[in-house]
Automatic annotation (TrEMBL):
Residues 44-98 form the Myb-like domain. Keywords: Nucleus, Transcription, Transcription regulation. One of its GO terms (molecular function) is DNA-binding transcription factor activity. SMART domains: SANT. GO terms for cellular component: nucleus. Residues 1-29, 105-126 are annotated as: Disordered. It comes from Nymphaea colorata. This is Uncharacterized protein. Residues 8-20 have a biased composition (Low complexity). It is found in: Nucleus. Residues 47-94 form the SANT domain. Its main location: nucleus. Pfam families: Myb_DNA-binding.
Length: 126
């Protein structure tokens, strides 16, 4: 018996591209045209065994900025800062983010084509 696929837990938000670009931490190429909001939306859409709310995603982003890869007990610290997530869940969430960024940077995910910021924002309300 084939299992029916369920709809994603959230509607994907429409986000305008950021005007500020920075160097990609993955490829070293310049510029990286991926706003943190787009990365958050992708992470939220692909979390595997647990759902992540907006607060947890924001805390996750802040924790990643605070605890770099050389920080002792990095994943434990990040999990504590996120709240309600284990070290394994934050590691998995990070891996999904990195996979998504690689897909975006390699051109496998198209960028939205917004005519202006108002139309992008109005789509979020629908």
């Amino acid at each position: 018996m084939k299992k029916e696929e369920s709809a994603p837990p959230y509607k994907y938000p429409s986000l305008p591209l950021s005007s500020s670009c920075k160097q990609s931490p993955l490829t070293g190429s310049h510029p990286l045209i991926v706003p943190s909001q787009a990365a958050s939306a992708l992470m939220a859409s692909r979390s595997s065994s647990s759902s992540w709310n907006a607060r947890q995603n924001k805390n996750f982003e802040q924790a990643l900025a605070k605890y770099d890869q050389d920080t002792p007990d990095r994943w434990k610290n990040i999990a504590t800062m996120v709240g309600d997530k284990t070290e394994e869940e934050v590691k998995r969430h990070y891996q999904v983010l990195m996979d998504d960024l690689r897909s975006i940077e390699s051109g496998h995910v198209p960028f939205p084509n917004y005519t202006d910021r108002r139309s992008a924002l109005s789509e979020e309300d629908q």
